[in-house]
């Protein structure tokens, strides 16, 4: 097996170069890497050592690309798993000691009863049989024997504790790896669990609006179609990457009636829409979401016309951070070439006379922030929730110990 630091450095390099993008892929690869980190820890490592190892690697991954919030989400979930499994082992051990103590009390009680039953009765009174003096003297060890016996007991007790601790640490590592495997399996199947809920929300002859392309949105709409729901989908193309064109081809190939519109046409078409369905990049702790650029415009249009806005997201996209945290980078600027052809506008980008700045600036933000008050419902792989419940849902999956968010390198 390759050195774990080599794997970490390779993953960090890919994150920095944006060779790994998207919450689904990023979450899966992060979970697999952390599983390797845990598996290569010594068998004798306790919970504290596992936590420190995961934190150390997690901080490197988060610093490599702070905008990929799914990395930090998975790191916090794995930390939560370690602490949960350790607490479970401690609780079981404590319960075992309690049962053992109770059993000892019962044995003492039974022994006393046996002693009472072995007494003789004279005139209705119980008389204990006196112990012979030479028997008592034979049972008393001399000083040398007593010291030797005490030392042997201490050594055996120390070895017993050491063996017990090693066994407990081995079981902890085994249970943590098993739980991380279950997390990876959940990441593989979360889109199916989200799609199963489509039938309850999408009905016949409805008009659905979405923006760009999201795997969760595609699976959600496809599942409704497979359940014999007949509906029409309007897709805002999602400039400048135009991922809506890809989604339109995928849905039409599945037999769905699909119409592509420009992003600026959303307000013009929203009055015909029954429901808006959006995929997101991350869900913040306050219920707001980080979503592809243009999502806030769609959400405002839906709010203006009282159209419900449904967000489909996996648990790995739930983030324990707040958008107002100044140390958290929630957006990035895309390449100007996605908006303008440099060859055609190179003269406008030349530096002005006597000026140190170009005449033309191109700003291409990748994400939008949609506040919680514009969202009607979250559909996740663990159920459907309103925005006010998101923080409680996050608390069930994430470690309360927050990793220190780091600013991107300048």
UniProtKB/TrEMBL annotation:
<keyword id="KW-0963">Cytoplasm</keyword>
<protein>
    <recommendedName>
        <fullName>Translation initiation factor eIF2B subunit beta</fullName>
    </recommendedName>
</protein>
<comment type="subunit">
    <text>Component of the translation initiation factor 2B (eIF2B) complex which is a heterodecamer of two sets of five different subunits: alpha, beta, gamma, delta and epsilon. Subunits alpha, beta and delta comprise a regulatory subcomplex and subunits epsilon and gamma comprise a catalytic subcomplex. Within the complex, the hexameric regulatory complex resides at the center, with the two heterodimeric catalytic subcomplexes bound on opposite sides.</text>
</comment>
<keyword id="KW-0396">Initiation factor</keyword>
<dbReference type="InterPro" id="IPR042529">
    <property type="entry name" value="IF_2B-like_C"/>
</dbReference>
<dbReference type="InterPro" id="IPR000649">
    <property type="entry name" value="IF-2B-related"/>
</dbReference>
<keyword id="KW-0648">Protein biosynthesis</keyword>
<dbReference type="InterPro" id="IPR037171">
    <property type="entry name" value="NagB/RpiA_transferase-like"/>
</dbReference>
<dbReference type="Pfam" id="PF01008">
    <property type="entry name" value="IF-2B"/>
</dbReference>
<comment type="similarity">
    <text>Belongs to the eIF-2B alpha/beta/delta subunits family.</text>
</comment>
<dbReference type="InterPro" id="IPR051855">
    <property type="entry name" value="eIF2B_beta_subunit"/>
</dbReference>
């Amino acid at each position: 097996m390759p050195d774990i630091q080599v794997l970490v450095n390779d993953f960090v390099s890919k994150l920095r170069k944006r060779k790994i993008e998207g919450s689904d892929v990023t979450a899966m690869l992060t979970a697999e890497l952390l599983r390797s980190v845990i598996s290569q820890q010594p068998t004798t490592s306790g919970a504290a050592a596992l936590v420190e190892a995961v934190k150390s690697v997690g901080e490197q991954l988060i610093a490599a690309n702070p905008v990929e919030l799914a990395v930090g989400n998975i790191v916090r979930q794995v930390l939560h798993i370690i602490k949960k499994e350790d607490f479970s082992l401690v609780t079981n051990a404590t319960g075992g000691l309690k049962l053992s103590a109770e059993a000892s009390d019962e044995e003492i009680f039974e022994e006393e009863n046996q002693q009472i039953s072995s007494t003789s009765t004279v005139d209705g009174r119980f008389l204990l049989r006196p112990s012979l003096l030479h028997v008592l003297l034979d049972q008393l060890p001399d000083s040398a024997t007593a010291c030797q016996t005490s030392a042997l007991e201490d050594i055996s007790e120390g070895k017993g504790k050491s063996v017990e601790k090693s066994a407990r640490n081995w079981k902890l590592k085994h249970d943590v790896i098993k739980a991380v495997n279950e997390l990876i399996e959940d990441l593989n199947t979360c889109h199916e669990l989200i799609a199963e809920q489509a039938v309850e929300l999408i009905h016949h002859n409805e008009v659905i609006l979405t923006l760009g392309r999201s795997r969760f949105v595609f699976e959600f709409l496809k599942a409704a179609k497979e359940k014999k729901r007949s509906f029409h989908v309007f897709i805002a193309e999602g400039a400048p990457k135009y991922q809506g064109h890809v989604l339109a081809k995928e849905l039409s190939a599945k037999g769905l009636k699909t119409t592509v519109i420009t992003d600026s046409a959303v307000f013009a078409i929203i009055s015909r829409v029954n429901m808006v369905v959006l995929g997101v990049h991350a869900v913040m702790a306050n219920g707001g979401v980080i979503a592809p650029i243009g999502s806030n415009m769609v959400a405002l249009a839906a709010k203006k016309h009282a159209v419900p806005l449904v967000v489909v997201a996996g648990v790995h996209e739930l983030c324990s951070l707040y958008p107002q945290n100044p140390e958290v980078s929630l957006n990035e600027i895309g390449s100007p070439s996605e908006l303008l052809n440099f060859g055609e506008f190179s003269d406008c980008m030349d530096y002005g006379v006597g000026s140190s700045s170009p005449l033309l600036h191109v700003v291409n933000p990748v994400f939008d922030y949609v506040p919680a008050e514009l969202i009607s419902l979250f559909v996740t792989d663990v159920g459907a929730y309103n925005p006010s419940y998101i923080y409680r849902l996050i608390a069930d999956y994430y470690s309360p110990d927050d990793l220190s968010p780091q600013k991107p390198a300048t």
